[in-house]
Amino acid sequence: MSEHIIDNPVVSTLLNRRSIRKFKNEAVDADTVATLETVAQHAASSQFLNDWSAIRVTDPEVKAKLAEIGHQDYIATAPLLYVFVLDEHRNSRIAAGKGVDVTADEYTLTSSYRYSQAQNDAVLALHAMETAAYGLGLGCVILGSLLNDVPALIELLELPERTYPVLGLAIGKPDQDPEVKPRMPRSMQFFENAYPADDENEDAFRADLAAFDETLHRYYDLREADRPVDAFSDQIAAVGVDQGVLNKPVLSPSEAQGFRLDR
């Protein structure tokens, strides 16, 4: 039986999302900002602890420093710019106000479990904001590049103990119209009941990978004919041995922020 993608405005918005890195020099109005921030607050939250926050960056000097950290000039020109952080600082203040000893070894909101769940919550909130922005005709790009230098980012944004940066999000009216990037076959990412053993689907896996390599290579060739890009599998292999900005430690700066990732 053939399958068809159901069409509705939300599905269409998600299927047509593209990273926009060039924005028109137009401010995002206050009503839109309020809408995007309220939508982010309505994202799912583990145990409803609301353990994330977002910093809206409006100072041109701070934007410029973020662009330096991310090695991406367009960060400095984003009309609307956020840095989402996992935030157990606020909850520690609340707990302390209720008489909880937040410095005790038994205190749980600085554990690895809460760290990972708070990080998830921040990502869910960011994704909700991003989707809403696309639905309103804006463009976005998620900024993992801000994690190139976490200590510098923490210092720049004056992040207190028990917070940690997760991702940035730049938003504005698009000033470019890139093609939608191809996705790998569903068979490579969706499995039924259990993760398949490597030898269970090796032939099909290799065939799907070869087809995806070709599809993505063609996409990059059409987009940047003067700057060839390696096939997907070659990119994965290269990243696997990269010792540069893609290999930044998390444990040390997290511990410096007051988290206990060993428990």
TrEMBL record:
<keyword id="KW-0560">Oxidoreductase</keyword>
<dbReference type="InterPro" id="IPR029479">
    <property type="entry name" value="Nitroreductase"/>
</dbReference>
<dbReference type="Pfam" id="PF00881">
    <property type="entry name" value="Nitroreductase"/>
</dbReference>
<protein>
    <submittedName>
        <fullName>Nitroreductase family protein</fullName>
    </submittedName>
</protein>
<dbReference type="InterPro" id="IPR016446">
    <property type="entry name" value="Flavin_OxRdtase_Frp"/>
</dbReference>
<feature type="domain" description="Nitroreductase">
    <location>
        <begin position="15"/>
        <end position="173"/>
    </location>
</feature>
<keyword id="KW-0285">Flavoprotein</keyword>
<keyword id="KW-0521">NADP</keyword>
<comment type="similarity">
    <text>Belongs to the flavin oxidoreductase frp family.</text>
</comment>
<dbReference type="GO" id="GO:0016491">
    <property type="term" value="F:oxidoreductase activity"/>
</dbReference>
<keyword id="KW-0288">FMN</keyword>
<dbReference type="InterPro" id="IPR000415">
    <property type="entry name" value="Nitroreductase-like"/>
</dbReference>
